[in-house]
Design a protein that fits this description.
single chain, alpha/beta, Rossmann fold, Spore Coat Polysaccharide Biosynthesis Protein SpsA, Chain A, 3 domains, nine-stranded mixed sheet, eight-stranded mixed sheet, 18 helices, about 40% helix, elongated, disordered N terminus
């Protein structure tokens, strides 16, 4: 079938009006006919004032000149995209960039060359396009890649123009599959040029990611990049993007992720965030996300190949607000015998089997493998603090994903466990040491009492009473630990020791809340978003 004769197109024999001002550009070599060159000038005249034109495949600049001439006085810029290395040209490879600059020099104030491969240039192109002229790769695969990269950047009702449509089967197939369904009022042909206005709102709706995977990280570049690669390797038809939020502001990690972005068909965003805090990373990740579902993982996980399919599936039920995935350990050291007696939440491990089931409060996901509707993250004012510094006791902690999930329950949504949405959570050898578990007990105490105090808004005398109770529990646990001292590695001694650490920290935290006004303000803040000005700055970067 000759696509030119399709009912979705209409041919025109209209002849262009001669314009003597174009005489100077006829000497630039091109395979375009006289009518085609005039047509480009006329189409460029139809763009909005201060509009933008992008041309993919500029060669020596003949078409660039006619586009620039037609839009002169209206277009803010004409972006010419090419490698200027004559890739796949019959005359062989050579550098034609200097000749292009010479030929387009009369329009130097509006013609902006962008040298590189089209799809790579498109990834960093941030402007809306009024007219897109495609005269680069004529294969179906190449043109489809160009359309995938550039169509989402066009204005609604923008114009897309193709050269060599009359003879190239690759162009005809791409236009039929990708342009016919979104063109407005059919398309038009003149000689070998096809053009149409397209409904780009439909394009963006169809191509917007359904899922945004957010990976907060801090000073673990190797882990983070391996986690990223496991997400890239998903076997899925679900459209998704990846957003890495780096509290460590690591230039090396940024370069690795920028390279991965160029090599992958996925959208991979890197954002340095100097404001420490896992909650800051999660909140900013949600604000940057384009998907309706935001999925959070930690930087020390490796996801299974079917993970994204399984964690997305429960959201078919509109009453599901959050999903918890299965988190299995990947031991990087030999786990001690007594570890089986320790609450697995200390290691952010969750295994309720392989079947999907609805959870009930106080069951909650861990932030290393959880998914939430974006509208809920924004509507419920984001996450409370979790970690706010890298080491030591963090008095300005909160209840992180636990507190947020409680808000999801309270809003009337279901929270579901998806056992087939599994991943491996790395457990380094040092995390299994007694001191590391004691540190986790300290943090757990702060988070637990943050929740109680925030929800109950205790008065100072009530805090003093609770602190006394915590002290009594500490003394009992400490005495028990002393009695079990000869059995240094017994599970009972370890549990008693962690209990004493937990209650001691809880007591100190409660006493600090009595005397520290800043800490009390922190606990009772309505939300923990960064300032509006800072968020606008981050989003616009």
């Amino acid at each position: 079938m000759n696509i030119v004769d399709s009912q979705n197109t209409r041919n025109t024999d209209q002849k262009p009006i001669w314009d003597a001002s174009l005489d100077a550009y006829w000497s630039v070599p091109t395979q375009m006919t006289e009518s085609e060159r005039f047509l480009l000038s006329e189409l460029a005249q139809k763009i909005d004032q201060e509009g933008l034109i992008v041309e993919v495949g500029s060669y020596l600049g003949a078409s660039t000149c006619f586009l620039a001439h037609g839009s002169h006085g209206k277009a803010r810029s004409v972006y010419a995209v090419d490698t200027w290395q004559n890739h796949a040209m019959t005359e062989g490879q050579k550098d034609t960039y200097a000749q292009f600059l010479k030929n387009t020099s009369p329009f130097g104030e509006i013609v902006i060359p962008l040298r590189g491969f089209s799809t790579e240039i498109a990834k960093n192109f941030q402007h809306e396009i009024d007219l897109l002229f495609l005269d680069g790769d004529h294969s179906y695969e190449g043109l489809k890649s160009d359309l995938d990269a550039w169509l989402p950047k066009m204005k609604r009702n923008g114009m897309v123009v193709f050269h060599d449509y009359g003879w190239s089967e690759g162009i005809q197939k791409a236009v039929q599959e990708l342009i016919f369904p979104i063109q407005i009022d059919g398309g038009q042909c003149l000689d070998s040029i096809y053009w149409a206005r397209v409904n780009t709102q439909k394009v963006n709706e169809e191509r917007a990611p359904r899922v945004s995977v957010v990976i907060p990280t801090l000073n673990r570049a190797t882990y983070a990049f391996e986690a990223l690669n496991s997400v890239i390797a998903q076997k899925t038809d679900i459209t998704y993007e990846i957003i890495v939020i780096d509290n460590g502001c690591d230039p090396a990690l940024e370069q690795d992720i920028l390279k991965a972005n160029l090599e992958s068909s996925l959208s991979i965003t890197y954002r340095a965030l100097p404001e420490l805090g896992l909650h800051n990373g999660r909140n900013v990740g949600a604000l940057l996300s384009k998907g309706e579902i935001v999925v959070y993982i930690d930087d020390d996980v490796l996801v299974s190949s079917d993970w994204i399919n399984q964690i997305y599936l429960p959201f078919d039920d509109p009453k599901v607000g959050a999903v918890a995935g299965k988190s299995s350990p990947r031991w990087e050291g030999v786990p001690p015998i007594w570890l089986s007696q320790i609450d697995q939440s200390f290691l952010s491990l969750l295994d309720l089997g392989t079947q999907t089931q609805e959870l009930q409060w106080p069951q909650t996901p861990f932030g290393c493998n959880m998914a939430v509707r974006k509208c809920l993250i924004l509507g419920l004012r984001g996450f409370h603090p979790d970690g706010t510094a890298e080491n030591g006791i963090q008095w300005h902690r909160g209840d992180g994903e636990t507190g947020f999930t409680k808000k999801v329950y309270d809003a009337g949504y279901k929270v579901v466990y998806a056992g087939k949405a599994w991943l491996h959570h790395r457990i380094p050898a040092q995390r299994l040491e007694h001191d590391a578990l004691k540190s986790r007990a300290e943090k757990s105490a702060i988070s637990s009492f943050y929740t109680k105090i925030r929800n109950n808004r205790y008065r100072r005398w009530q805090l003093a009473t609770i602190a006394l109770i915590s002290f009594i529990k500490f003394v009992k646990a400490a005495l028990y630990t002393s009695l079990l001292a000869p059995f240094a590695c017994s599970s009972k001694r370890v549990k008693a020791d962690l209990s004493s650490v937990y209650n001691w920290t809880a007591m100190i935290y409660q006493l600090r809340l009595i005397t520290d006004k800043d800490l009390r303000r922190w606990v009772f803040r309505p939300d923990y978003w960064l300032s509006s000005a800072r968020l606008e700055e981050i989003i616009s970067e």
